[in-house]
Design the sequence.
C-alpha cells in the first residue's frame, strides 16, 4: 500500500502559512448571503471575509485563518508528510478513494483536511490546529486524528496551550470505522493534555457537524464560535427528512448554541486574536510554563516525490 | 474469521456477505441488552435518570452481580414491539442517555466497580430536541468520561454498532464483537444515500464500508470476536453464555495485567487504554517513504 | 441557655424502636384519599399503611418505618440527648420557639424530627436515619444536622452503609440561618462518606421539600422514592402563587421525578426491605467491610430529667 | 459590629434595624456582581452555559485576573431595568445556573484557580420548569461540588443572601459579608407569610430571623464583615475596593495556612472546610446536662 501514493507524484504540496488560502473568485464581486450587499472581493479579503455592512462571517480557508491569527512568519507546520491510506479499498460512484484524495489535493493545494503546527500570538507560543472545509468537507479521517494527536502530545511535552479551529461536514466515510475511531483518538489526546493542566481553546466555525462536534471540539476548556456558524451533530437535511418537522428559527446557529448552554461565547473574527492572547495570559500563568523557543527552521521539509 | 476464497469452491455454504451480517445483526429476535442482563447478571438494580433532564430508556444501566463481582452494566435497548420501540426511541439515545451513562460510570468509578457495556444501536437520535440539548457535546463528554474512568471497562458490540451513538459507550480496555454484529461509522443506508444518492445501494455500501466483525478485527479495532456457531437469534442461550465467558475473561485479563486496586495499576490501565485508541488509524508518512528511498527533495 | 430545657422536665421521651409510631385514629375507619375505599384502621397498619385496594402509600411515622425495615430488636438509637437550642430567641404568632418545641415533643413523643442509629437488615449492619414528618413538619434544624453528621461519621469509622429516609416540609424557620446551614453540614458529611467509598441509599417519602431535597437526600448514591410521594424544592402553593400558572398533572410526584431523571427508581413499601438487602450486598462486597457487632446494650440512655 | 444599647441613648443616630438592613441590601443602585467584576478584576472572560440545557443569566461567571492571579469569579446577577430583570430572572437562578457554576468550579479546579463567589439573590427560582429540571438536585450538587473542590474558595455576601439559591455558591474556606448585606433561610416576606400569615409583618420577621451581618458573625457563620462606613450604594467605589481587599486577604490567609499547591495542603484545606460547616449549629446534649448534675435516670 505504500506505493500507490508514489503513482501520483505529480502532486506536490506547498508549504508556508499564508498561501493556498484564496479561492479564485468567479468574479470580482461577492454577494453577501445575509444582507445581499455586493462586496468587492479584495475588500472582503481585507476585512477577514466579514461583510463590512452586516457583519456576516464568510467561510475562510485554513491558511487564511492561520495568517490572521499568528505572528507573521511564526507558524511552523508539523507532519506535512502524513497521507491517507485506503484500508477499505473504498470505491463509490465517484471511483476509488485514493483518486478522490488526489483530485482534492490538486484542487485545494492541501494534502489533508487538518493543518497542525506551533505558532506565536503576540510572542506567546500556541499549538494551532485548523481544519480546512474545502478538503473533502473537512471530514475527519485517520490523518486528522494522527496529526491532532501528535500536535497535542507535543503541546503536552512543551507545556504549550492548544487552539483548535473546527469545521467539519462529518465523517470520512471512505475510511469507515477508522473515521469513527478518530473521535476517540482525538478526545483521548485532549484528556491527557488536561491532566497536565494545559488548556484547549476550541473555535467552532461554519459548518461544524458530526464526529468533530461529538468529540474534542465541544469538550474543550473554552468553546467559542463565530457569529452565525452552523454547528450540530446531525445535519439539518437529515433531521428534516427523519423527523418531518420544521426546524426552529436559528436552529444550530452559534447564537442558538449559546442560548442552549453549549458554548462559552461568540467571538467576532476581528476580535479573535486579542481574545486568544488574553486567554493564553490567563491560563499560562506568570511564566510557569516558560515558552520554549520556536524552532528556527522552516516548516517541516516535505519530501514526497 | 475472514472470508476465505477456498470456501467459495468447497461444498460448504458460501460465507455470509457483509449485507447478510447486517441482516443478522438486525434480526428482530436477536438478543438485546435486557436478555444479556437477565441471563448473565443477578441482582440487577436498574438505575434511572441523568439527574439533569430525563430518563432515556434507549440506554439502560444498573448495578448487578456478574460471575461473583458487583459491576456496572450499561447498554442500548430498543423495543420488541411498536409501543416499546417508541418509548425506547428505537434504541437511539438522546443526550439524556449519554449523560445517564456518564453518571453511572462515575458511580462505578466511585465504588471501584468494573464497567460492562453492551452496544446495540443504529445510532444517535437525529431529532431537533436532541440537538437543542447538545447531542454532540453529550457524546463527546461520554468519550472523555470513559478515557478518565479509573475502573476496567469491557465493551461488546452485540448487534449493530452505529456511529457516535455506539462509540459513546464504546471506549474501554477491551472491545469485543459478536461474529454477526456490525460496527460502522454510519448505517449502510446512510452511506448509500450520501455516496451513491441511492438508498437501494445499501448492500454495496455495507460491503465497501467493511462493517463485519472480521473486518473490525483485521483493522485492529476489535480485540476479540465471540463466535456464533449459530446466529444469536437462533441459539440465544449459547451465544449469550459464550459472550459472558468472553467478558469474564476480558475482565480477568485486565485485572491481572494492571491490578486496578493500586494507583500504579490504574495509571497503567489508563495508559494502555489511551495507547489502544492512539494506535488506531490508517495513514502513511510520505516523508519517511522518501527517506526510505533516499531521494529527499526540499 | 442550658437551663431552659430543665424547665420542661415533665416531658420524658420514650425509647425503643417500635413505639410512638401510631397516631390514635379519630375513628376505626380510614378513607383512602386515592380510591376512596374505607379501610379498617388496624388492617391498614398491618399492610404497612398501603391501601390494599389501590396501593396508595399513606404517610408513616418514623418509628413505624424503622420497625418495618430492621431486624427485630436490632435498632440501636444514637444521640437521643440532643435537643434544639433557641439561638435567635425566636418568637412568632404562636409564641416562643422553645414552647413550640415542647408542645411538639409532648404531642409526638419524639424529641426531634430526625431519628438516627444503627440496625441490621437480615443480619447486615446499616446506619439508619429517618425523618418524622409529625415533628414540626420534619423541618431541618441544628439537631437534625448534628445527629446526621454524627451518624454518618460513625458509619465512616465502622465501614457501614447509610440509608436515609427523607421527608421534610422545609426549613426550621425558628432557627434561621442555622437551618439553612444544615444543608451544607449534611452534604459535607456525605461527601466524606463518599471518599471512603461507602454508599448512601436515600429514600424520599411524602412529602419531601426544601432544604432536605436541596441537600443530601437527592445526591445520594442511590435515590429511591415511594410511589406517589410529593418531592420538590419549592412548595406547590408557593409556585402557584408566584407563577400564577396551573401545575401540570402529577407535578412533583415520584413518578414525575423518575420521568425527569431525578431518581433511580420507585420502590413499593413492601419491597423495600428486600431491595435494601440487595443493595447492601451489591455495594458492601464480599465481607470487605466486615460487619462490626452491634453494641449489645439497650438504646442510649436518655437522662433528660 | 453588634447593636449597642449605648447607641440608643447617645447623640449618634440610632443603629439601623434589621429591616433597615434589608432595605439597604436591596437598594436599587447597590453594586452588583458586574460592578465588582468591572472594578476589581481585569481581563474578565465571561463563560456561558452549563453544557446541558441553557445559559442562566441570573448566575454569571468567568475567568479573570484578580490582584495579579487568575481566578474564577462566580456571582448572582439581577437586572437594572425591567427588561434585564426578566432576562436575568431577577437574579434568581434556575437549575442551569447552578450547573453552570459547578462546571466553572470544576474548570477552576482543573487549572488550580481560586474561586471567588459573590452572593446576591433573593433565592432560587420558584418556577415549574425549574422543578422539572431538578432545582433541589442542582443545588445539592453545587454543595457537593464545593466541598470537594480542591482550590481555595472565598464567598462574599454582597447584598441579599437568600436561601438555597445563595448557599449554592456559598460553601468556601472563608465567608465574608458586607455590613449591610443580609443572609437568611427565607425572605422576611416569606417568613412573615408562613409564620404570621401576614406579609406586612416582614419587618418583625426580619428582626426575629437575625439576618444581619452582625448576627451572622455572632453565630460564627460569617468569618468577617466588610464595613460600609457609607452604604454601598452611596459610596460604591470605596465599598467595592474594601471588599476587594478583604477577598485578597482571605485568599492570602488560605494560601498561607494550607499551601494548596501540595497534596497535603489541599487535604488540610478540605478538612478545614469540612470542619467549618461541621461546627455550625445550635443544640445541646441533654444527656450531658444530666451527667453534669450527676442525676442519671434510666
Ligand atoms: Zn452582509
Ligand atoms: Zn386506595
Sequence:
Amino acid at each position: 500500500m505504500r506505493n500507490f501514493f508514489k503513482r501520483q507524484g505529480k502532486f506536490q504540496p506547498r508549504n508556508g502559512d499564508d498561501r493556498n488560502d484564496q479561492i479564485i473568485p468567479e468574479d470580482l464581486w461577492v454577494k453577501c448571503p445575509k444582507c445581499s450587499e455586493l462586496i468587492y472581493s479584495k475588500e472582503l479579503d481585507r476585512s477577514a471575509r466579514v461583510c463590512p455592512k452586516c457583519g456576516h462571517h464568510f467561510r475562510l480557508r485554513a491558511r487564511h485563518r492561520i495568517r490572521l491569527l499568528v505572528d507573521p512568519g511564526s507558524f511552523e507546520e508539523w507532519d506535512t508528510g502524513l497521507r491517507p491510506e485506503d484500508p477499505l479499498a473504498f470505491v463509490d460512484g465517484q471511483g476509488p478513494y485514493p483518486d478522490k484524495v488526489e483530485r482534492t489535493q490538486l484542487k485545494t493545494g492541501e494534502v489533508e483536511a487538518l493543518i497542525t503546527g506551533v505558532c506565536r500570538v503576540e510572542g506567546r507560543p500556541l499549538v494551532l490546529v485548523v481544519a480546512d472545509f474545502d478538503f473533502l468537507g473537512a471530514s475527519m479521517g485517520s490523518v486528522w486524528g494522527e496529526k491532532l494527536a501528535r500536535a497535542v502530545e507535543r503541546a503536552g511535552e512543551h507545556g504549550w496551550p492548544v487552539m483548535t479551529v473546527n469545521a467539519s461536514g462529518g465523517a470520512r466515510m471512505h475510511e469507515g470505522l477508522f473515521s469513527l475511531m478518530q473521535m476517540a483518538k482525538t478526545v483521548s489526546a485532549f484528556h491527557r493534555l488536561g491532566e497536565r493542566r494545559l488548556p484547549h481553546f476550541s473555535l467552532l466555525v461554519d459548518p461544524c457537524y458530526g464526529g468533530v462536534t461529538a468529540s474534542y471540539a465541544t469538550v474543550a476548556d473554552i468553546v467559542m464560535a463565530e457569529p452565525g456558524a452552523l454547528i450540530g451533530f446531525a445535519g439539518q437535511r437529515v433531521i428534516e427528512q427523519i423527523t418531518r418537522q420544521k426546524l426552529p428559527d436559528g436552529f444550530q446557529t452559534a447564537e442558538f448554541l449559546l442560548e442552549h448552554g453549549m458554548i462559552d461565547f461568540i467571538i467576532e473574527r476581528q476580535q479573535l486574536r486579542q481574545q486568544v492572547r488574553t486567554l493564553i495570559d490567563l491560563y499560562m500563568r506568570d511564566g510557569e510554563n516558560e515558552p520554549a523557543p520556536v524552532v528556527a527552521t522552516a516548516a517541516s521539509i516535505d519530501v514526497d516525490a | 474469521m475472514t472470508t476465505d476464497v477456498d470456501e467459495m469452491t468447497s461444498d460448504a455454504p458460501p460465507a455470509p456477505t457483509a449485507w447478510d451480517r447486517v441482516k443478522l445483526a438486525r434480526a428482530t429476535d436477536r438478543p438485546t441488552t435486557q436478555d444479556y442482563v437477565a441471563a448473565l447478571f443477578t441482582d440487577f438494580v436498574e438505575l434511572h435518570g441523568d439527574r439533569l433532564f430525563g430518563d432515556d430508556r434507549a440506554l439502560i444501566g444498573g448495578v448487578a452481580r456478574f460471575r461473583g463481582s458487583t459491576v456496572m452494566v450499561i447498554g442500548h435497548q430498543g423495543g420488541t414491539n411498536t409501543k416499546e420501540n417508541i418509548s425506547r426511541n428505537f434504541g437511539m439515545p438522546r443526550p439524556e442517555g449519554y449523560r445517564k451513562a456518564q453518571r453511572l460510570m462515575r458511580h462505578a468509578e466511585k465504588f471501584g466497580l468494573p464497567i460492562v457495556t453492551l452496544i446495540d444501536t443504529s445510532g444517535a437520535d437525529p431529532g431537533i430536541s436532541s440537538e437543542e440539548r447538545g447531542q454532540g457535546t453529550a457524546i463527546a463528554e461520554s468519550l472523555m468520561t470513559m478515557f478518565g474512568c479509573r475502573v476496567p471497562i469491557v465493551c461488546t458490540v452485540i448487534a449493530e454498532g452505529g456511529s457516535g451513538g455506539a462509540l459513546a459507550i464504546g471506549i474501554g480496555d477491551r472491545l469485543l464483537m459478536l461474529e454477526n454484529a456490525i460496527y460502522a461509522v454510519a448505517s449502510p443506508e446512510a452511506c448509500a444515500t450520501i455516496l451513491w444518492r441511492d438508498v437501494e445501494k445499501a448492500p454495496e455500501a455495507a460491503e465497501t464500508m467493511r462493517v463485519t466483525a472480521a473486518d473490525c478485527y483485521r483493522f485492529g479495532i476489535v480485540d476479540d470476536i465471540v463466535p456464533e456457531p449459530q446466529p444469536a437469534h437462533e441459539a440465544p442461550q449459547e451465544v449469550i453464555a459464550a459472550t459472558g465467558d468472553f467478558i469474564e475473561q476480558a475482565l480477568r485479563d485486565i485485572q491481572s495485567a494492571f491490578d486496578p486496586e493500586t494507583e500504579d495499576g490504574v495509571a497503567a490501565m489508563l495508559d494502555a487504554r489511551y495507547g489502544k485508541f492512539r494506535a488506531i488509524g490508517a495513514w502513511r508518512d510520505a516523508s519517511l517513504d522518501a527517506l526510505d528511498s533516499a531521494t529527499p527533495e526540499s
Summary: The pocket of zinc ion (ligand 1) is lined by residues A 32, 34-35, 37, 51, 53-54, 56 (CB under 6 Å). Residues 1-22, 287-305 of chain A have pLDDT under 50 and may be disordered. Chains A and C do not touch (no CB pair under 8 Å).
